[in-house]
Structures are given as structure tokens and as C-alpha cells.
Amino acid sequence: MATYKIVLFYGFTPLAAPESVRLWQQALGERWGLTGRVVVSRHGINATLGGTVENLKQYVRTTRQHPGLEHIDVKWSDGTGADFPRLSVKVRPELVSFGVPDEVEVDERGVVGGGVPLGPDEVDALVAERDDVVFFDGRNAFEAEIGRFKGAVVPDVRTTRDFIEQIDSGTFDHLKDRPIVTYCTGGVRCEVLSALMRKRGFEEVYQVAGGIVRYAEARGADGLWEGSLYVFDERRHVEFADGVEPLGSCVVCSAPAARYENCGDASCRTLRLACAECTPAVTAGRCEACVAERPGSFVPRPTARPGVPAAV
Length: 312
Prior knowledge:
With 312 residues, this protein is of the alpha/beta class. Helix content is 25%, strand content 23%. The longest helix is centred in the N-terminal third of the chain and has 14 residues, at 18-31.
């Protein structure tokens, strides 16, 4: 019986021919029957893919043969074989869409000018030694509703592009002389964000190496991470220990909830938190956003939910 897994990784390295790398990655994914998303840019590669453990091992082994990608940190988690609707491999100006591709500098060692990477022990030690440490969430705000580091600053952003506008507006200028620990799901967003913050005058910037995934894998329920981790596949969220109390609240009854659902409209892209008891009601009707966008037009969604949004 096949065992399915999901791999999450990124690698910052100069790529002179992103389109050639895209074609190569597309061919690898098709060869081994993988699904998920791969983004290629002149700055490197970012991927989240699902498939059988045997085929993913072949894919990872081959990808690591490319110059500059030999040491990519691959994070493994359990999959179902139906975590992504299809394989998507694209070339984009940025690995993470902050909207400032010309500001990001990459060399053979990775992002130039990024924050100091900290492993789990180093994160905990810094917080224990300093009482002015600020965790800065590098994800979209809805992701933080179900899980975040204790006391974290969560910018009110809907997409990654919103970060630069908020930072440039001076919203966080009062934090410029405090130690900032940026974090995100797997490390790619906060690696870029930490460099952009340093360019804008934040003096002492760190990043959680390997992101939430690496920290929470090491700490489980005993560290500074609280709640669930939102993931961009059909699982929608994962926990790193048994008995984790969800931080989010059901939109219907306000009970603790960690799972986001689309409404019953086939075109719905609005994710709302729902507990198990209220999920049937949330997924059967139409949300306010869909009614406003398409009044009088209702095409029920199929049994399978539409694809979840990309990690932008």
C-alpha cells in the first residue's frame, strides 16, 4: 500500500535560466506523478508537493543535483494522495510576492542582508535573555488567527504585497530599536522579509530558521508556538502535538476552530473558520462576499472543494 507524503522546501540561489528550470521541474513532477506548486525565479525555487514517499524521494534527490540546491532543507509531513488538485510549475519575478523583486539580492549563500537565523534553542534562549523581543508574523493575517508565537505582532495584511506598504507607512517604526524575530510557515517568506526590514532601518532582526515547521516539530506543545499551523493544501491545518487548543473561533457559534472552509458557491475564495458541528451549514449556503460579488448567481460547488489560495 502506497504511503503518501508532502514536501515543503525552498532554495535561494541565482538561477540564470528560470524558464529552463521550470521545464525541468515540470518534467520531474510529471515523471513521478506529483501534484502541488513549484515557483521558480531568478532568485531560486520554492515548492510544496505531494506524492508517494518513493517518488518524492526520487524528485528531491534529483532536484538536489542542481548547482546551488544541494543543501535545500526539505520538510516532510503526512499526505493523503489528494492534497493538491494538480501540478503547477511557474516562473515569477519573486519567490515570494512582496512586490519588490529588484530589492531582493541573492548570491550563492542565499538572501543577502537577511536576519540572523535562529534554531529552536536559540529562539528560546533569546526570549529568555531579553524581555523586549518581538515576534513578527510574516504571513497573511488570516493564517495567524489559528496559530502564532506568543505575543506576536500580526500585521493586518491580506496578501504578502501588503507588508511593504504597511512597513513604509511607519506603522512599525516604534519597533526599530527592538530585537525582531520574523517567522513564517517554512522560512521562505520571513527570510526575504527580514532582509527588507533591515533595509528599512530595523536594527536587530532575526528569523526562525526553517520557519514554524522546524520550531514546532522540535518543541511540540512545550515551546513558544501556540495553536495550529495553516497549510496551503487540502489539510488546511496541522498540529504538532495532541490536544492542541485551537486559537480561532467558528464564524457561526464562536466555538474553538482551526479549519477554514469555503461556502457553497463553486467560485468562493473566502475562507471562514468553522467548527465540526457548523461546517455543514458554512459549506451549504453562500457567504456575504459571494453574494456581494455575484448577486443572484449561485453555482453549487462540487463535493471536492476548489483549490486553496497560493502562499503569496
